[in-house]
């Protein structure tokens, strides 16, 4: 017979359940940025009819003492409170609730009618107030004791009621509750607090070796320095560089991914490592480590933060291969196991073996690579194919780095199955690449961005959306011409708080695929140096600058939580709203998804939800053109010609009536 | 600086997430009955492209060793398996998954083309097979070793492929996997296995003191014995008795809940306890303990199981009040605190104080009450107002009782807020009263029963629905006449696998309220003895018998999981299907919710989902009348006259074509 002992304390009558946000039972952290409140909800209730009180408990992970915020009921036994963390890094939170005898007494007392009943109940209340006094510090203690004495002294029903139901004293007593039998949610739920760039960032990717001012020469960090004003003027804040390390010579790939490199072929930057060094070395033709540090500083002066690529794989001549054969898998013939997905073979790339007996040595070395670049002033990392490395490594490495550098940002470049992408985000990646590039129709975009903004992943999966990358030239871009690029840019920039483009291919509308059906660029920069004519008349640089300015100037666009799609009676038009929580900044975007034809339709706003007067006009300030339209009522007409302007990004300006009867729009 | 150590094992590359069912992270148990499979799902995946294998682990809670069932992928990294527990009581289950090197090798091997590549890969495979041999017991070990040797010996691609891809040997090797780096879900999820009656039960409630064969006399257990055939003939299997204990004399309530009892008033059975004894005593006018045991046995002979009422509260003259003053709260004037909800006072009832310093003594005593009745042969308990007693008590008491008596069934009579009702079910109550009595329209019934059958509560909240109780005479019954009773009975009996009625008030269509707007019965049996004329011509006993027979004979009606509502183009008609998992038994119910008028409409079946041929007829066998209708196509017409038959309960019979071209319907 199994024993069934009594619990240590059986008088815990309150229940705390369903605390949210809660990711996998508290196994993983929710994410917020500094200054952003975390709203916490929980089911709190008890048996019977007694009053329940609840508090949100929170603290930084390295603090010893909880901070407390009273929770308020919001219906159906759900309670809510929020807190705003005041520094970066890991925090924890939980919820405690208890049956509050004092509040129950006060609730019941107000409903009693019989004089004798009131008198007896007053004595019970006095005892509860005296107990609260015993828990209070000195000045309050005396006030409460005096209140209890007054209650004991009175007898007439009116006097008893007046004394007992004193609001201020009641609140004072309630603030020293008897929490001996409180129920506290058994899990301390984690929260990671990042800086604002984790949520709102605008990325520009380029190949440094393609930045020389004249054709035929390999660009250097110095050339890239000269390119910084160009990038900054377009309004980007993160400049992401593909790997800057020595490139392997063994089995180097040629132009357009030819199996054998020709003489002079520069190879792929992702084939990392050669005699000159590996993941902490710099390609000699780009410059020195000092040049790199200079670049970091110069970028910062232009409001740009440098992001590096973390690609944990080796070219066959990477120094690790000889120094640490135990970090690689070997075939029975003694050769190192190259990357493969039979029958495909990638013999120029050696993956690390995360089942190595020396996994500890491997992990420490890989973490030291990230730490090396942090020491050079880099705090943003775009991680190449994180889904092909062991998950526990990422969880450990990101946590290790962020304990010393809570400002660090990791973007997961995982284009793979949904659960794998979500798991990487749970493990600690700050931002995640998405399926955006392959979501084109109104139905696809609506479903996907509704999931991103409002699905359970919203607590930990921060989308970073890219219309193109060096690996992804979508069919839509290949065949939609310049309007397609404008359309995808506006969608990326206004649907997601973080987005990026791979340039100058993007702004120069580069759109020829290597072969039909391929998403690879012809003459891809991955395998050769390109020279770009940035001054071309059809460049989208100016347009991109206007879009990014709208993002910077409108806080509504800096978060994904408020995204709401708006009905428009044409399936080629998509329309959506973003707002700040206080509604002060509201941006309505309308995009023509058809890059070939004019499309028009009626946009239908929920005026009540926007706090707009149905009978008064309101102003729609188009941020890309500067035009200001007067709209009125719920339904308004929009027509978009892709050849001229395939999208409107409107800031809603409400009419303000001044005392002198002069209207303006705020 | 906080340390961040390496984990003990970093090579755990597989992930197990989102195991279901999982109630509050494993804090509470899912529920199934003996013979019913538990289908378990989990997300299982790993980094990269290697093959993953997963197993469901399960065992009875008191067993030491897991039983294992291989899981199969069902898409989107979701895996599924099921197990059928073979005994009652608590079980646990979890999921383990690992990167399977052997399966990965086999998958890749089938895709390799290069001869040298095949030869090298064969050697790698031989090593994996040898490792599997090392984990296998002797006869298999030798087979695997021989297989590895054959692989090492071959060289020609065709021979290598033929040897390597042997199905049977592959499965054998896969059954001895390398699980050193397996990921096991960290929570052992609990499951409670009950007997079938926990899921499928048909309750009849009556007051024993009203069972005398002639008016003017108080009924006894002997009278009740004579009533058993009547109850059994209606097809009930649980006979539930309100409290059978001595009734308090102090502050006894009179007829129709009068504050003061008149001479001869018998009092409410829920005012438990008097000089003769308390919760383990029997009201002297009902009989002796021996009479009671006789009744239990006699009921069993009629296929009826007795259920008792557990009402943990005391009349003022209950022996506990004097013997254990510490179990009650006292007012400052020294009196015992009676039940109240100011300004309402229930001075005839003393609740227990679950915050008593002697809560341990109180818990043990209350549990001993349940155990006392179990010793008398009672295993079903309807618990009165469990939501006004401390939650931790129920969790402890039910678990304690069920460890010795896994056959015990507890029905929670909690008509309160949704979260409280769900919490009681989570804590261990086997079945739960519901809001059914107040769900009348098609929209209300559809929403509520969809939630019950398909919401998250389906794993632990087993509804038991009652058209009436001694406390609940709904407006619908008061004003709908006899058809309303038939309608509510069919709804209860076919929407829910467990239901009950309070009789003979129900079958005799008793429908006069104490006063307008009240749900109390006039001359309620709660406060007086009634004599019922069971032979009345308008009795619904025969009708109820036919409905309950349909339940017994159709396994589709014995579970709630398959409930699916069926469109019918008249809002006063409701239609729904229930099926066994194999589809062999399918019942379609159509009910006219309007007790006053004929209603007709077109029922629209999803023929494909039912596996029916759109061009061939099928038979609808009406189980209450015995009539058989030939239907064909998706849309069929139904007309229901409440004065004659307000509902159809159809068993779907599919046409079977025999060899001799003679059709019949199975």
SSE order and pairing:
The structure is a homodimer of 666-residue chains.
Chain A: E1 14-20, E2 30-33, E3 38-46, E4 52-60, E5 67-70, E6 72-75, E7 78-83, E8 89-99, H1 101-109, H2 115-135, H3 138-153, H4 157-164, H5 167-174, E9 183-184, E10 189-194, E11 201-205, H6 221-233, E12 238-241, H7 289-301, E13 305-310, E14 313-314, H8 319-323, E15 339-341, E16 344-346, E17 350-351, H9 359-375, E18 380-384, H10 391-404, E19 409-413, H11 418-427, E20 431-433, H12 442-454, E21 463-465, H13 475-495, E22 498-502, H14 541-553, E23 564-565, E24 573-579, E25 586-592, E26 599-604, H15 607-610, E27 618-622, E28 628-631, E29 635-640, E30 647-653, E31 655-657, E32 663-665
Parallel strand pairs in A: 2-10, 11-12, 11-22, 12-13, 13-18, 18-19, 19-20, 20-21, 21-22
Antiparallel strand pairs in A: 1-3, 3-7, 4-5, 4-8, 6-7, 8-9, 8-10, 14-17, 15-16, 23-24, 24-25, 25-30, 26-29, 27-28, 27-30, 31-32
Helix pairs in contact in A: 1-2, 2-3, 2-4, 6-7, 9-10, 13-14
Overview of this structure, please?
Two copies of one chain form a homodimer. The model of chain A has no long low-confidence stretch (mean pLDDT 96). Chain A is globular and about 105 Å long. Chain A is 28% helix and 24% strand. Chain A is built from 15 helices and 32 strands. The first copy, chain A, is α/β, with parallel strands linked by helices. In chain A, helix 9 packs parallel to helix 10. The N and C termini of chain A lie far apart (75 Å). Chains A and B meet through strand 1, strand 3, helix 2, helix 9 and helix 10 of A and strand 1, strand 3, helix 2, helix 9 and helix 10 of B.
